């Protein structure tokens, strides 16, 4: 096996480890680490939760004295700063590893090349970029927020074949089947916040939380904040979403009764500013939009969506049913186009993952 193939093999092992923290590490990134010596795995670890040791620390503990002269494979550049835990770059130096292979550089200003520099200054060989694309997919929100100050925003929609999301009365349960609805739980679980509009909360009395994941203990999931856009202060205190008020944020006029419940209240602000607020003030780096046609269309038309997750059921709801989007376009040149990332069949439904594109027809 060539050295490159060997590096890719071990980095893929580190990436698989990192995935084990997918639902629990928020707001921290998902990181995995393996330590290899003489082609043998001698230590491995992943970061399970904010405040707990980082992946490198677990791997070094397992490797013990054997780490001296070994190669460490890490999915994200080792940290260089003192936070709740000491710098991992210094731990690798102290262990006297010979080489560190890094998948992704860390754009966090507290790290941003400093971790690599600590290693190089100690005479440790460093290689960057092995399986970078694969590793970056684990931390799309974190990497985007650290680079731009904006979270990674996914828009989820569920519709019929004729692009309808509810009957004219608002009745919408259910268009898609149980497999598609279960799939939505994953996207909520990787998100720091789910944004919706007050009309959706009133119509569906939804909770928008994570209730079940395959082979995952729900108690280990870092539940997303539920962010309700309520410009006129209409949120009923009896709404199910307020059963766990500490995970609710409301953008609207200040209400003392919400403050008494422990709800975080946000000033009314433009959608882009709201996303910046969530990222910079609340360390929310992945956002899922689950809303009606008006709010979904607004996020799309303002160019704030990074990815759309569209579930389509093999059913027709008719022309009087509510449309998926309500943008008012007159010309073909105004259309919003997407690039298809993948298609997945979920029982009788399909899931399309799409990213907006600027291509013109």
UniProtKB/TrEMBL annotation:
NADP(+) binds at residues 158, 174, 200, 204, 292-298. The keyword GTP-binding does not apply. Zn(2+) binds at residues 54, 79, 88. The keyword Signal does not apply. Substrate binds at residues 172, 188, 208, 211, 290. The active site is at 56 (proton donor). InterPro entries: APOBEC/CMP_deaminase_Zn-bd, CMP_dCMP_dom, Cytidine_deaminase-like, DHFR-like_dom_sf, Eubact_RibD, RibD_C, RibDG_C, Riboflavin_Biosynth_HTPR. It catalyses: 2,5-diamino-6-hydroxy-4-(5-phosphoribosylamino)-pyrimidine + H2O + H(+) = 5-amino-6-(5-phospho-D-ribosylamino)uracil + NH4(+); 5-amino-6-(5-phospho-D-ribitylamino)uracil + NADP(+) = 5-amino-6-(5-phospho-D-ribosylamino)uracil + NADPH + H(+). Binds 1 zinc ion. Residues 5-127 form the CMP/dCMP-type deaminase domain. Gene3D superfamilies: Cytidine Deaminase, domain 2, Dihydrofolate Reductase, subunit A. Keywords: Hydrolase, Metal-binding, Multifunctional enzyme, NADP, Oxidoreductase, Riboflavin biosynthesis, Zinc. Pathway: Cofactor biosynthesis; riboflavin biosynthesis; 5-amino-6-(D-ribitylamino)uracil from GTP: step 2/4; Cofactor biosynthesis; riboflavin biosynthesis; 5-amino-6-(D-ribitylamino)uracil from GTP: step 3/4. SUPFAM superfamilies: Cytidine deaminase-like (SSF53927), Dihydrofolate reductase-like (SSF53597). Its cofactor is Zn(2+). GO terms for biological process: riboflavin biosynthetic process. Converts 2,5-diamino-6-(ribosylamino)-4(3h)-pyrimidinone 5'-phosphate into 5-amino-6-(ribosylamino)-2,4(1h,3h)-pyrimidinedione 5'-phosphate. In the C-terminal section; belongs to the HTP reductase family. In the N-terminal section; belongs to the cytidine and deoxycytidylate deaminase family. This is Riboflavin biosynthesis protein RibD. It comes from Acinetobacter baumannii.
């Amino acid at each position: 096996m060539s050295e490159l193939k060997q590096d890719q093999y071990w980095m893929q092992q580190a990436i698989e480890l990192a995935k084990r923290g997918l639902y629990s590490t928020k707001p921290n990134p998902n990181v995995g680490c393996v330590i290899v010596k003489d082609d043998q795995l001698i230590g491995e670890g992943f970061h399970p939760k904010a405040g707990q040791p980082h992946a490198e620390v677990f791997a070094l503990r397992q490797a013990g004295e054997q780490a001296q002269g070994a190669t460490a494979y890490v999915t994200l550049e080792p940290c260089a700063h003192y936070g709740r835990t000491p710098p991992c770059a210094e731990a690798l130096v102290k262990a006297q590893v010979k080489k560190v292979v890094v998948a992704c550089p860390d754009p966090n200003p507290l790290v941003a090349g400093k971790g690599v520099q600590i290693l190089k200054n100690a005479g440790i060989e460093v290689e960057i970029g092995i399986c970078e694309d694969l590793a970056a997919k684990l931390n799309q929100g974190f990497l985007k927020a650290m680079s731009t100050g904006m979270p990674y925003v996914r828009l989820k929609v569920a519709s019929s074949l004729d692009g309808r999301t509810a009957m004219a009365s608002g009745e919408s349960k259910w268009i898609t089947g149980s497999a598609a609805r279960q799939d939505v739980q994953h996207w909520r679980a990787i998100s720091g916040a789910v944004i919706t509009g007050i009309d959706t909360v009133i119509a569906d009395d939804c909770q928008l939380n994570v209730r079940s994941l395959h082979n995952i203990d729900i108690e280990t999931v870092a539940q997303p904040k539920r962010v309700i856009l309520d410009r006129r202060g209409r949120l009923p205190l009896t709404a199910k979403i307020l059963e766990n008020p500490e995970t609710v944020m409301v953008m609207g006029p200040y209400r003392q009764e919400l403050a008494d419940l422990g709800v975080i209240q946000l000033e009314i602000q433009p959608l882009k500013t709201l996303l910046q607020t969530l990222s910079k003030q609340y360390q929310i780096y992945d956002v899922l939009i689950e809303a009606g046609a008006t709010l979904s269309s607004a996020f799309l038309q303002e160019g704030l969506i990074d990815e759309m997750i569209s579930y389509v059921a093999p059913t027709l709801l008719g022309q009087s049913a509510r449309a998926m989007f309500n943008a008012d376009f007159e010309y073909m040149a105004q259309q919003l186009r997407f690039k298809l990332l993948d298609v997945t069949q979920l029982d009788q439904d399909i899931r399309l993952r799409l990213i907006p594109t600027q291509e013109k027809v």
